[in-house]
Amino acid sequence: MYMIVHRYFLDVAKRTGISLDDLYSEGFVGLIKAYGTYDPTKFQGAPKFSTYAVPSIIGRIKEYLKRDGSLVRGPNYIIRMLPKVVKMDEEGKSVKEISEALQRSEQKVRDTLEYVSKQIPFTLEQQITDRNGDQTTLLDSLGVQDDFTGIYVNELLDKLSDRDRMIVDLVMKGFSQSEIGKKMGVFQSQIARRVAKIKKVWKSIREGTETSKNTGTVNKNQAAVAELRPKKVERRDSVKAQKATPEEMKIHNIQTIVDLADWFTDVKLPDVPSIGINRHGISFNASAVEMMGLAKGMKLEIGFSLDHLSLVFRVGDKGAKLKQLSGQKSLTIVNKRLINWLVARSVIQKRYSLEVDQLTGVWISKVELGTKEEKPKGNVS
């Protein structure tokens, strides 16, 4: 979505003074709308979601530009000349020939052609020049992009509360923030804050740095608990015992309370390595990528241990290829067969923490099992 705005609307934004954030917001609405109507079973896997979503995103942004009248209107002489100049240009006539036919200066013809060239692409079949200087169509250039969009949209919708989903739905239907506020019985400013938070969640997913919703509250609670903790008291008659090393404990199969405890991990914190599983594939957040030393193009072998209720990851040539969306730190595996394999093992699609198995050195994620109808519990993302 960001790529579409930058590639096809950046020049419009610069010339008209429109905020890129406004274009992102409108494109985001078009993206969610496409997600709500996309049904891959109807198309037998073609087109991909990214290709399907592009017209919705572009259409939404174009509607916004037309609705707000933000496009800069050219000088009157350009508007009057525009139809004839475009027609003659398409016929292959030169600037000089057009100038003579219309009895207008060559500079005015050039100004008109430049004005046309800076307008929004109106159809997906329009000829454009790619970065290599080759002629192609807008549709062809978009079709070769990696299909990551569905992963991020799916993860976003999983994060939203019913109330926020309702707000997104009403925005998609064309209601203004004040109208949404009236429908939900709150002030427009409250709706604006909710929309801003939804945008932040979306951005964090794209960048692979999920943020905790209750960070401030957690910090205050931790400070309060710290005050109530008993102070450490040194006992004179205490006996100092020699600590066993981890290696000695493994040899004698000794398990401590640390080993037996079921530890809570807030996988929404940005510094906690985690993976996200949904119907498109598996995503690794920025912390997981750093911990595992992963890079775009590497292959990961994925195993499942029913005894340990864990997914196991290791780098290997027989694994699934990691892909990366331009400018993002997170990595993804988009593989329908992989998801079918996980579904067959009843792995619930949600976000899980990632850790290193100290004995083998592989990475593992404790997972939950259930049916498709069963809603995930715990740290759902």
UniProtKB/TrEMBL annotation:
GO biological process, one term: DNA-templated transcription initiation
Gene3D superfamilies registered for this protein in UniProt: 1.10.1740.10, 1.20.140.160
Stated name of the protein: RNA polymerase sigma-70 region 2 domain-containing protein
Keywords: DNA-binding, Sigma factor, Transcription, Transcription regulation
GO molecular function ontology, one term from the record: sigma factor activity
InterPro entries: RNA_pol_sigma70_r2 (IPR007627), RNA_pol_sigma_r2 (IPR013325), RNA_pol_sigma_r3/r4-like (IPR013324)
Limits of the RNA polymerase sigma-70 region domain: 7-68
Pfam families recorded: Sigma70_r2
